[in-house]
Amino acid sequence: MHPAQLNIFTDPETLAQSFARELAAQIATGKTLHLALSGGSTPKRLFQILASAHQELDWSAVHLYWGDERCVPPDDEQSNYKMTKDLLLAQIVIPEENVHRIRGEAEPAAEAARYGKVLGEKLPQSDGVPVFDWVLLGMGSDGHTASIFPHQMELLEGKEACAVAVHPSSGQRRVSLTGPVLQAARRVSFLITGASKRPVFTEIIHRQGQWESYPTAHVRPAGHLEFYLDQSVLHVGS
Ligand code: 6PG
Questions:
Q1: Contact status, residue 222 vs residue 183, Cβ threshold 8 Å
Q2: With contact defined as beta carbons under 8 Å apart, do 136 and 22 qualify?
Q3: Could you tell me the distance, in angstroms and rounded to a whole number, from the CA of residue 213 to the centre of ligand 1?
Q4: What is the pLDDT of residues 205-216, one digit of tens each?
Q5: CA 141, CA 170: separation in Å to the nearest integer?
Q6: pTM, entire model
Q7: pLDDT tens profile 155-167
């Protein structure tokens, strides 16, 4: 495992509270922050906590992006944007031009190209790769992250910042950041909770079993890598 900071919490609530404090402290600096959000269910509580602090936080220097999006309309229950809008965006004041939605309703390949162009325009670049200040990621029980699944390890490489991914069981298409963008980030935080993640995460952290077959194991950013875990994922001393 790439040198990574492990933060282990007793439960998802204390994890979310702690991470929210970290993120709020960075937002409170007023410095421009290019932040990529993860989808799925893990960040929901985090977004609720950030929304409840909305009076104290000035979001005007924050630019929000997504690490991946399902190819569904923005009002679809499966949309990562809809989840974020319902739990966070609708509760805070953030300039509309700072919210860079992946258009799930668009033709996937065209949207991957468009979003890659947006990243090229909005973010600093390092060797032609967009550099996020901070990327939030989750991990699926199969070791995927963003929408880079084990059957599409090629998305860990490549020249494009975004690519079309396919969910291995549902076949649902996704638009996802690719590996090079994750590697170029200044800070990558995985938020991982739930016993279902434990088997794969244990293999990854101990470099055992099939650890190299999991996309999460290959995220080794140039910047800071940290894992926010609850005890059901990794017991202290295990
Ligand atoms: C998505 C996410 C995905 C997610 C993991 C974990 O679009 O689903 O971006 O990468 O982070 O699947 O999902 P949970 O948080 O729901 O366990």
A1: yes
A2: no
A3: 18
A4: 999 999 999 999
A5: 15
A6: 0.97
A7: 999 899 999 999 9
